[in-house]
Specification:
The chain contains 6 helices and no strands. By secondary structure, it is an all-alpha fold.
Length: 92
């Protein structure tokens, strides 16, 4: 990205964190984790979702997910399936 904007990577990192309040790495991690959540809510299994969202190692993905959401990816998916079942149960 720094090359595209013709600035040093350090300047880009400084400006990004100053404007957004977070680092580029943390921002990208949050975006990937949000994408995984969307896939899990749609029924994708965690073993596929993490690969589709750019994670290369399941252990690192699992730690990041658990740290961000306080539960495992499987627990998250299960909870959303149950919540969805409750809301659709009463629809007419």
């Amino acid at each position: 990205m720094a090359e595209q904007f013709f600035v040093s990577k350090y300047h880009l990192m400084h400006e990004f964190s100053q404007k957004t309040g977070t680092s580029i790495y943390r921002y990208l991690m949050q975006q990937r984790l949000h994408a995984v959540c969307d896939l899990l809510e749609q029924g994708t299994v965690p073993n596929e979702a993490y690969l589709l969202c750019g994670f290369k190692d399941y252990a690192n993905f699992y730690r990041a997910f658990r740290s961000a959401y306080g539960q495992s990816p499987r627990e998250y998916a299960r909870a959303h399936r149950k919540a969805k079942a409750r809301t659709t149960k009463f629809c007419f």
